[in-house]
Amino acid sequence: MTPLEIQAKLDRILLKVAKPGRYVGGELNITVKDWDAIPIRAALVFPDIYDIGVSNVGLKILYDQINQRPDALAERAYAPWHDMETLLRANGIPLYSLETFHPLADFDLIGFTLPYETLYTNTLNVLHLAGIPIRAVERHAGHPLVIAGGHAAMNPEPMSAFIDAFVIGEGEQIVHEIIETLKAWKQGKPETSQESREALLRELVRIPGLYIPRFYEVDYLDDGTVADVRPLIPEAPRVITKRMVPKLPPPPTRFIVPNIETVHNRASVEIMRGCTRGCRFCHAGMIVRPVRERPVEEVVAAAEEAIRNTGFEELALLSLSSSDYSNILELVTKIGEKFGGQHLTVSLPSLRIESVSIDLMERLKDRRSGGFTLAPEAATERMRRIINKFISDEQIIETTREIYRRGWVTIKLYFMIGHPSETLEDVRAIADLCKRVLAEGRKVIGYKARLNVGVSTFVPKPQTPFQWVSCDTVEQIRAKQNLLRDLLYRERNIKLTLTRPEDTFLEAFLSRGDRRLSEVIYTAWKNGAKFDAWSESYRYDVWLNAFREHGLDPEFYTHRQRRVDEIFPWDHISAAVKKTYLFQDYRQSLEGITRIDCRQHCFACGILPTFTQVRREHPGNYWKCPEVKTPVREKEVLAVGL
Amino acid sequence: MRLRITFTKQGPLRYTGHLDLHKIWERAARRVGLPLAYSQGFHPHPQIQLAAALPLGFASRCEVVDLKLTENIPLEGLAARIQSAVPGGLGILSIETVEERAPALQTQVIAAEYEAELLETADKHDLPRRIETLLATDSLPRERRGKAYDLRPLIEALTLNAGRLWMRLTAREGATGRPEEVLDALGISLEDARIERTRLIFKTDS
Asked: What range defines the domain where residue A117 resides?
């Protein structure tokens, strides 16, 4: 179907769906290239609705990287909402790109971002709506290459049947290597055969950081755990080590400005990548190492440019832990001076629980609107030692009291239940701490003090020190949540928000699964599972039936303490953090031993030996690991994995 | 200073609603560096007035917006600067200044003209007679969002010209005719027509 035919058909259906602006593109700052003049065409897909996906920074970076090349173009697509999907199918309209309305199947490459696991069924649905075979092995050379990346790709196995190649780690450099390879293959005038596609994949597998599941076979032990993951061809590496950009390139500033209301309608600047705190539950903190910062001047200049290019009324300074940015006070002061009084909101996420954070917020805010957000994650000192996010109770009380005193009426506190070795006493402590915080607020500002409490449930993630531990069962979670409800329901000024236990269960098996889960995902999708990130559309029964159909037990993946020597389905994927390091950290957590910020002391997680050469080539302070002082050896060995 | 900008709304922007169009103007002002005035109070709002909400899906070649500024700026070259700062589908037709104390723009609209291009799929059989019959009646009782109303007095004019329907509908507060209602009364489905607003008529025009 041609773009014109698609547009003509769309005009007839768009007024029948909610928010048709999701499906027409035409936003400010999009890049529209001459389709026929460009050899390599990529469609970047966020497999949820436009409203959620359009602000995704990762895809924006790739969109810019690809469109800066004269020989390639990048366009965008998102998952249509239920109403639009029905009409697309009924009218035979394939899923198309928003820039030029080309069917996704006409592209050379489709790149999915998978920041979280509940997008898996939507990914299958997008392929289906595009008329592209869902299983990778059923695609031939005439079909687009299907690539996925993002944090969830750190355990690619559950989606291995559907994705041709996974990008492990950061995408800025590898995207160009993929395009070069694709271009060389395409110029060789390939036939539309399975063999030709195989040839392309055998070229791609040489690119470091690209994982092509079909070139590996998994052996299992009798107990269902992994015995070995074997490369089937000599070109396929035994361990795929993540890609890492040694120096952050200039941040994107020409953000796409939606013509409709979306979730994060704002400009953003990534001030820092990675985190040195070492919270043991934190997936991002483990897989996005080392810490790399952007200089203050670069951030301020990018922020100004971004606001000038977009006109957005909100600016977000992004990082995993704002307080740890080396020159945070200087940055915030400059940003505050630049944008004060301009009816702009500046947001600074992930602040540490200390009074300095309040000083920072005061510099950014003309008004005390909105809440002040802090994330203690756990309510007892014992538990905060276990998760390595140690703050004393006193520090929490003092900081929150000071926030109320300085004019904020609402504080938001985030906790998790389900941490390793958690007891009902630790859960009860969440309610007690909240009541104490509110009581302090009342002393300072009286009965207008408000407290919003968000309690989510911990899912032990692959590639973290807690990858060995079991996730709470739905029943355990429910009991803990009921306890919290009972303890807090009388408190008028405390608003408690809980996540659904079933959502945690889903996230747990999707993130911890092995390749056999592909069939479960396929069956669940076929029977109607999609938009799993949306509580209202989550189909618990469909998933359980899918497990049953394939003779698998979801609790094997979720509620099972792993053996110390267990080979994980994701062990051949390396975030450059050693498994021995993760295990040592896990053991220390059980003893209540905490680790300080690794800027102050290197705990040898594995980043430096993996990236010795890179570190040597990029000395200096913006990368927060110690300098490599050893002389260059004759032959530098790239240490990977274990 | 108060600027009055006349502009088109076409293409993908047809699917941007009234509130979102406000946002587009606020952002355009920030990109161009216009000193937009904000209301006082705890939640300051930019002082932007759109003449008349355009139903979703319709194009227009006659939208009007007033922007209140905190200081005077030269109009020279302004249209081009704004044009380069707005999304595709929004075309600047003219910019003028108006009396700061002039009444709110939306209170001044009295009628609007629309053109409906009928697609091949539209049922055009005997259409002139259907129009005639419609215009001959005194009352056209209809229901919209559960509210009964009479469409007929809202239709000021309706003609068919070279496959296009042209209509002038009342557009006063509480008495606004909607072109898709007229189409429906004629037995033409909305999806078989492309509707464009061609003119807004203000009190001062008469």
From this structure: 3-236
